[in-house]
């Protein structure tokens, strides 16, 4: 089974999750600026919410790499909304990519909101989620 991890972050919250799951799976977490070089069975795409939506770089990455994505798995952080799943579902559908029905979301620190998140419990939950997907 081939696995890739990509992330988009402006504050470091999502990179923290991506690196933790990469460490557990034995692969390298790379930013969305790094294209997929080959087809992967699972792409764990870690993203976050800025101004109530996913950044255009995340949307562009999915479109540009659609041919190399087996199943896209959404992981997100946000201070205010519950997840990016609904937005990712639309992006995946438009790109012709299969989106896993399971997702992971946790709070991310933003200014004074949710200080310390993602914390150790969030990271452990993300790792457990990823393991359940690839099991």
Radius of gyration: 13 Å
Output the CATH topology. Answer: Rossmann fold
The SSE order reads: EHEEHEHEH
**Count of domains:** 1
Average of pLDDT: 90
CATH superfamily: Flavodoxin domain
Number of helices: 4
Query: What is the percent of helical residues?
Result: 25-40%
Query: In terms of structural class, how would the helical and strand content be classed?
Result: alpha/beta
The 3D shape can be described as globular
Low-confidence stretches: none
Q: How do the strands of the widest beta sheet line up side by side?
A: 2-1-3-4-5
CATH C-level class is Alpha Beta
The strand count comes to 5
CATH architecture descriptor name:
3-Layer(aba) Sandwich
Task: For the structure shown, list the relevant keywords.
135 residues; alpha/beta; Rossmann fold; 4 helices; 36% helix; globular
Give the SSE map.
Elements: E1 3-7, H1 13-25, E2 29-31, E3 40-48, H2 56-65, E4 69-78, H3 85-95, E5 98-107, H4 120-134
Parallel strand pairs: 1-2, 1-3, 3-4, 4-5
Tell me about this structure.
This protein has 135 residues and is of the alpha/beta class. The protein has one domain: Rossmann fold (3-Layer(aba) Sandwich). The chain contains 4 helices and 5 strands; from the N terminus they run E-H-E-E-H-E-H-E-H. Helix 1 crosses helix 4 (120-134). The protein starts with a strand and ends with a helix.
């Amino acid at each position: 089974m081939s696995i890739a991890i990509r992330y988009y972050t402006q504050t470091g919250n999502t990179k923290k999750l991506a690196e933790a799951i990469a460490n557990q799976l034995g692969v390298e977490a790379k930013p969305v600026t790094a294209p997929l070089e080959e087809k992967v069975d699972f792409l764990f795409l870690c993203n976050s919410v800025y101004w109530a939506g996913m950044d255009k770089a995340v949307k562009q990455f999915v479109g540009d790499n659609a041919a190399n994505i087996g199943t896209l798995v959404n992981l997100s952080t946000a201070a205010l909304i519950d997840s990016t799943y609904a937005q990712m579902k639309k992006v995946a559908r438009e790109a012709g990519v299969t989106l896993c029905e399971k997702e992971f979301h946790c709070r991310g620190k933003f200014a004074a909101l949710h200080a310390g998140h993602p914390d150790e419990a969030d990271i452990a939950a993300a790792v457990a989620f990823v393991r359940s997907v690839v099991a």
